[in-house]
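Hi both,

Apologies for the delay on this - the queue was longer than expected. I finally got the calcium ion-bound model through. Below you'll find the protein sequence and the ligand SMILES exactly as submitted, and right after that the structure tokens for the full complex including the ligand.
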Amino acid sequence: MKHLVVVVISATTLMGTVSQANLLTNGSFEDGPAPTVNFIPDTFGGMQLNTASTAIPGWTVTGDQIAWLHTTNFWGITASDQTKSLDLTGYNNTGSAGGIEQTFATVASQQYLVQFDIGAQQPSWGSTDIIVSAASQSATFQATPTGTQQWTTKSWIFTANSAFTTLNFSENNPSQTLYNGLDNAIVTAVPEPASILGLVLGGAYLVRRRRN
Ligand SMILES: [Ca+2]
């Protein structure tokens, strides 16, 4: 009975190791690292970024303008992770859908878990509605504010179909809301059942060898 416990622990530890490696660069939309200083706040404590901007390390702005916000700002919007977050509606809250994307290495047919925090501000600003897309797959995620500045963690799984995948977060309903918060994006490979079984069997083999 003792060896069975050892096997379960080793498989769980390995799975945990796999799931913790974020495949995204700067998933928290921070500035830097030094000496990079791209964030130059305006008098509101934010920065408007137009489409095609690469000011946020690792990311490219898509569609309409977005807002890159420091936690200390005119609106009292706080990041869910570290000091900076995004408002995909930008400052003007009009026009087409603002968004942000990043391309990273993937393995075709491999499943990937995308975790991210979406922010809703206050009821009068409307509900947050964000569409996430990758490898010709997409899903929408909503959050309706009941107080002020609420972050909710969402998750989505897509299957890669090539050696590189572009992940995009965009406003899903640009005319509906004044704020679509986004922060703390993490992408990890989903361990395949076959490889987990392999780990368990490998662990069992090692335990048996050790006992012998
Ligand atoms: Ca952040």
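Main takeaway for now: Residues 28-30, 79, 81-82, 84-85, 183 surround calcium ion (CB under 6 Å).

I'll put the files on the shared drive as well.

H.
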